[in-house]
Design goal:
Elements: E1 8-12, E2 20-24, E3 34-36, E4 45-47, H1 62-80, H2 82-102, E5 106-109, H3 135-144, H4 147-158, H5 169-202, E6 205-210, E7 213-218, E8 227-230, E9 239-243, H6 246-249, H7 256-259, E10 262-266, E11 278-282, E12 289-293, E13 298-299, E14 305-307, E15 310-313, H8 322-325, H9 336-363, H10 369-379, H11 387-404, E16 413-414, E17 426-431, E18 438-448, E19 453-454, H12 459-479, H13 501-514, E20 519-522, E21 546-549, H14 553-564, E22 568-572, E23 576-580, E24 586-595, E25 605-612, E26 615-622, H15 630-639, E27 642-652, H16 654-669, H17 674-685, E28 690-701, H18 705-714, E29 718-722, H19 727-736, E30 745-748, H20 755-766, E31 771-776, H21 777-796, E32 800-804, H22 808-822, E33 825-830, H23 836-841, E34 844-848, H24 855-859, E35 862-864, H25 869-909, H26 921-927, H27 932-936, H28 946-951, H29 956-960, H30 967-991, H31 996-1018, H32 1024-1040, H33 1050-1053, H34 1056-1083, H35 1087-1092
Parallel strand pairs: 2-4, 17-29, 17-33, 29-32, 30-31, 31-32, 33-34, 34-35
Antiparallel strand pairs: 1-13, 1-15, 2-9, 3-15, 4-14, 5-10, 6-7, 6-8, 8-15, 10-11, 11-12, 16-35, 18-19, 18-28, 20-21, 22-23, 23-24, 24-25, 25-26, 26-27, 27-28
Helix pairs in contact: 1-2, 1-3, 3-5, 4-5, 5-26, 9-10, 9-25, 11-25, 12-13, 13-14, 15-19, 16-17, 20-21, 21-22, 25-30, 25-31, 30-31, 30-34, 31-32, 31-34
């Protein structure tokens, strides 16, 4: 996140004409506002964000870090005392007051930061969570806000009270210390990395223009009002055109920026990255120059200049940049499995209290019974395993590593390591369309003129028409070069006559070649030619050197098609564009106005002045909707899955254009409701236009989308497609991708605007069975306003749902609705910035690195390179992660329950004495080196081979029911623990001879062997590391017997008596369970075992 880059505003260029700048807007973050551009090599100025893609782990962290730091600090101060509380409250109030002052419109004087009336935030990134003083308290608070860890802290602290002490201090403090040390070290490493990254970014040097010339300034020292020079950097695709202020373009030298008296009036910092309103005023000229500023005059942070140089004035810095303001504070995602384990932990705590109360009751409440109660709570504290969180966290890290190392899904990145199990519990998958299901690669497929339609196989006819028409035009021009203007002028008002197909094709292709925002780029010729842009007629516009850059792939497809039929875009700057005819002649068109595409108007327009012979002609191309055939053909093309574009034109006289221009410029200067006023002026021009043609462009499907969607559907996952595209295109892609099967009915939800209409339409939909639903964003909004519950209930019964014309906010809202109404786990997948809110709202967010940049990929929990990889990610890794964590969590609980059962039996036999059975190192060793490796090796277990999981996706349905970890399975493990603990303890008590020390030796050895055998019983597929772990643990225990003289009688444990007694107890505790497991597999096998047999 390049918020250390202040927003600039392009101010100056050594061009005499206005300068053009093209920007690659991948992350679309507000950062720079263009004031000027000084050109070094006569090439179009271009920008890309490629150079500023920062480390992914810091994405979305800047405000979160600050907010969490403030929140953490406040809560910790409360713990510290009322004095800190008062300090925090006063600081908070100061911050609130200060924030209100900050967000105002501002006047920024060129190159004079000292003239600023307000104090603006420092332009520094700070992603660190803590400082030197808050690190330890902050980390400890984060750990002890969890019930499990707080409980163990209380238990450990109680050992400092002599009356409550029941063993060595390290018995309790060693496990707790280990957990905390691991956490503190991990946080310290992360914090140090954040600090280094912040320092590196804040120390990056920029060229600042001062009265004395260029000086180098650190990113963190950039202030509002500074003039910053942005040099050329390499970039890639998706360029955006940017414009410098015209009046500063005519200044002879850079230093003159300081001699003029000029300022920028800019709107207050705000979230909207697609608009900017301001004015540029130069007071020292006569008359005073006022120039309106819009989004095209700005460079937000994270943009890169691809060639040339830009000089800009800084408008916003630090947390007032749009990139920081738009950085939402994503929720801290917690997996369903973690929530389930947390519930079980609370159940264990209740069991612990109940057991302690029973023990004290059986004692008869004699003496200081409350002290005995607390001692029993301490004795049985192993019921709640402190190692549970450590084991699960290490398991999650292992799953993440396995996912990233999987060669079948290369390039996959796990960005949130806390929720890999969620991949195995998904019920709803919400997917974007463009770039996710489709490739975002456009191919021109259809040209329709109303009476005749051309497809891919008849494009050669268009080419021959174009060649003929241009050869006629040029022969006429050469013959009539001396003719006067009046001879052709009557054409403007002549009565309409039916044009020939050839002339209509000529007009249509010319309009498509002109109405766009595409720029041709000649890589190998960059900076070679010293000629001006208007002398480029003599340049060699060789086809192999030319590539097209535009913000929309649709536009590139259209321009590439006009090139294929003979009319080639060879050059473009801010004021003109040049087309090359099939005969090699260059046609120059002067660009008078451009009306860029917006999501509100859903169209773009251009006004050009044509220089053909001596006749001036002004044309405008834009999207309109009228005509008898247009509606029908639009629908037909959309049903074929084509993206449609309607092209029309209108001829203007010079007087009409002058009138329009004055009204347009006036509207652009207004501060209030500027966009509405500008739109109204433009719309006044878009009337009675001559319809030229309808085009169809195809967006190709991603590789293996159909089989992947089919697999997900068979796995019981309901798929919703949320897209901004029109209804027909969305429906068509849904069918062609097999999101909706060919035989399935599709219910298209009619547009509704009122409560009554929504009621009727919902009733009509209710009568349909097993059909896919297609609904538009507007209708959805109305339904959710009045009938939210009913609509969601009906939609959830559909096998597939398509929501078209969805805004990013609506996408996130739909995700939250599903979570709220169904309680099921949701997954969102997308590839663009407009999918980020949906990805963050879902329980599991997956981003695809696509043509729209890395924004979705960086914001997601998992990043993949192709949509088809989601199949393996869910079916294989999701399954394994969930099954393994469920087994691991329950086994760690079993490990604590069994030893607590033995303690309970021991205490009850010895007159309910609150005396520990095992002391000191035995307890520490039991939870660590004696059993840790085999238990953790469960993260390598798998019940089904990956090939089988992919071949039979139906197996995934069982996972969503949550049967691997439930109160039922938990109770089974509790019963096993009680049975085994009872057998081990009673067996040792029956078999010990004279000394009590033998009970400890026999029972503890049998306990270790039982745990190792139970791991072997739980494992479904053996891995060589599991075998190593089993023998390593056994070896560690046998080796340590030599050092445990204070607990064991070494002479006794080397006898045959000891061995047969231990073996007998172990067999009795484990053999019945092995028999039960065998019988269960024989008579009631799980579904997957039928496939693997």
């Amino acid at each position: 996140m390049w918020s250390s880059r202040a927003p600039l505003f392009i101010a100056y260029s050594d061009y005499l004409e206005e300068e053009k700048v093209v920007v690659k807007a991948l992350q679309e973050h507000p950062g720079l506002m263009l004031l000027s551009s000084s050109h070094l090599d006569e090439m179009p100025l271009m920008m890309s964000e490629e150079g500023f893609e920062n480390d992914e782990s810091d994405y979305h962290t800047l405000p979160r870090a600050r907010i969490s730091q403030r929140r953490r600090g406040l809560e910790w101060f409360i713990c510290g005392g009322w004095k800190f509380l008062c300090t925090s409250c006063s600081d908070w109030l100061i911050n609130i007051c200060r924030r209100k002052k900050e967000l105002k419109a501002r006047t920024v004087w060129l190159g004079c930061p000292e003239k600023c009336e307000e104090k603006y935030p420092k332009n520094a990134i700070k992603n660190q969570k803590y400082n030197v003083f808050t690190f330890i308290p902050g980390v400890l608070y984060e750990q002890f806000k969890f019930f499990l860890n707080l409980y163990f802290l209380v238990v450990s602290c109680s050992q400092f009270v002599p009356a409550l002490k029941i063993g060595y201090l390290y018995t309790y403090w060693a496990p707790l210390g280990f957990v905390l040390t691991v956490t503190v070290v991990r946080e310290a490493v992360d914090e140090f990395r954040r600090y280094k990254r912040d320092k590196e970014m804040n120390s990056q040097l920029y060229s600042k223009l001062t009265v004395r010339g260029k000086v180098q300034v650190k990113s963190s020292d950039i202030q509002v009002g500074d003039l910053i020079i942005v040099e050329k950097l390499d970039g890639e695709t998706d360029w955006k055109l940017k414009v410098a202020v015209s009046c500063t373009q005519r200044l002879p030298a850079l230093g003159d920026l300081f001699s003029i008296n000029a300022y920028v009036y800019a709107q207050k910092p705000q979230l909207d990255i697609h608009s900017f309103e301001g004015t540029f005023t130069r007071e020292d000229s006569d008359p005073t120059v006022h120039e309106s500023l819009s989004i095209e005059n700005t460079l937000w942070a994270s943009t890169v200049v691809a060639s040339g140089t830009v000089i800009g004035v800084v408008i916003y810095t630090g947390k007032e940049t749009r990139s920081v303001m738009n950085t939402s504070n994503p929720k801290n995602k917690v997996g369903l499995l973690d929530l389930e384990l947390n519930q079980l932990t609370k159940a264990l705590f209740l069991a612990l209290v109940a057991l302690s109360v029973v023990m004290v009751t059986l004692q008869g409440f004699v003496g200081p019974w409350y002290r005995n109660l607390f001692r029993f709570l301490l004795l049985f504290s192993y019921i709640i395993p402190i190692s549970l969180r450590v084991n699960l966290d290490m398991g999650k890290a292992a799953y993440g590593w396995m996912i990233m190392k999987d060669d079948n899904i290369p390039g996959t990145v796990v960005r949130t390591s806390t929720i890999p199990e969620e991949l195995g519990r998904l019920v709803y998958l919400l997917t974007d369309k463009t770039g996710t299901l489709t490739q975002n690669e456009m191919v021109f497929k259809r040209l329709h003129l109303g009476t005749v339609s051309y497809g891919t196989d008849t494009m050669d006819e268009i080419q021959s028409h174009i060649i003929n028409s241009y050869s006629q035009v040029h022969s006429q021009n050469s013959g009539n070069s001396t003719s006067s203007t009046p001879s052709r002028k009557p054409q403007l008002s002549a009565p309409k006559v039916r044009k020939s197909v050839s002339s209509r094709i000529h007009e249509a292709v010319k309009a498509i070649a002109l109405c766009h925002n595409v720029t041709p780029v000649y890589e190998s010729r960059a900076g070679v030619s010293g000629e001006t842009e208007y002398a480029e007629v003599d340049q060699d516009f060789s086809d192999e050197n030319r590539t097209y850059q535009a913000s929309s792939p649709d536009e590139v497809a259209l321009v590439q098609w006009t090139e294929s039929v003979g009319l080639t875009l060879v050059n473009r700057d801010l004021t003109s564009m040049q087309l090359k005819t099939p005969g090699g002649h260059i046609l120059t068109y002067y660009i008078l106005q451009i009306f860029p595409f917006t999501s509100e108007s859903k169209r773009m327009g251009i006004i050009v002045r044509v220089i053909l012979g001596v006749f001036p002609h002004i044309a405008m191309s834009t999207i309109v909707q009228y005509n008898d055939w247009l509606e029908e053909e639009c629908g037909n093309m959309a049903r074929e899955g084509l993206r449609t574009l309607v092209v029309a034109k209108k001829s203007l006289t010079e007087e009409q254009y002058q009138d329009f221009e004055s009204r347009y410029n006036q509207a652009k200067l207004s501060i209030h409701d500027r966009n509405l006023k500008v739109a109204a002026v433009v719309e006044s021009l878009e009337r009675e236009m001559e319809l030229l043609c309808l085009t169809g462009v195809e967006d190709q499907l991603q590789a293996d989308v159909r089989p992947t969607l089919e697999m997900l559907r068979n796995a019981g996952i309901k798929i919703w497609m949320l897209t901004g595209d029109k209804l027909e295109t969305a429906t068509c892609i849904a069918k062609s991708s097999h999101l909706v099967s060919r035989t399935q009915d599709v219910h298209i939800f009619r547009p509704v605007t009122t409560r009554g209409e929504a009621h009727l339409e919902l009733n009509a939909f209710r009568r349909k069975h097993d059909c896919a639903l297609v609904v538009s964003g507007d209708s959805l909004e109305v339904c959710l306003k009045y009938y939210e519950h009913e609509f969601v209930e009906l939609a959830c019964q559909c096998p597939a749902v398509v929501c078209c014309r969805c805004s990013p906010t609506q996408k996130a809202h739909i995700v939250k609705l599903l979570q709220h109404h169904t309680g099921k786990r949701t997954c969102a997948i997308g590839d663009g910035g407009n999918d980020v809110s949906m990805i963050q709202a879902a329980d599991c967010g997956i981003g695809i690195e696509g043509k729209e940049g890395k924004q979705a990929s960086l914001a997601a929990d998992f990043s993949i390179t192709q949509f088809k990889h989601i199949g393996r990610l869910l079916m294989v890794h999701g399954r394994n992660s969930y099954k393994r964590s469920a087994a691991l969590g329950q086994f760690v609980m079993h490990r604590g329950l069994i030893i607590s059962t033995m303690q309970a039996v021991f205490s009850s036999v010895f007159y309910f004495a609150s005396v520990p059975l095992y002391q000191g190192f035995l307890m520490v060793g039991y939870a660590t080196i004696y059993t840790m490796f085999p238990v953790f090796s469960l993260v390598l277990d798998q019940d089904v081979k990956p090939e089988m999981a992919l071949l039979y996706p139906e197996l995934y349905k069982d996972l969503t029911k949550g049967r691997s970890l439930s109160f039922k399975t938990f109770l089974i493990w509790v019963l096993i623990s009680i049975y085994q603990g009872g057998i081990l303890m009673y067996g040792a008590l029956l078999l010990f001879e004279s000394e009590f020390v033998h009970v400890v030796a026999i029972s503890f050895t049998a306990l270790i062997l039982t745990e190792l055998l139970m791991v072997a019983l739980t494992i479904r597929t053996w891995h060589w590391l599991m075998v190593v772990a089993e023998f390593l643990s056994l070896g560690c225990y046998v080796a340590s017997l030599a050092f445990l003289n204070e607990y064991f009688d070494v002479a006794f444990i080397t006898t045959v008596t000891f061995l047969w007694k231990v073996s007998a107890i172990t067999v009795v505790s484990c053999l019945p369970l092995y028999i039960i497991k065998y019988l269960k597999r024989k008579f009631s096998p799980p579904s997957y075992s039928k496939l693997t047999s």
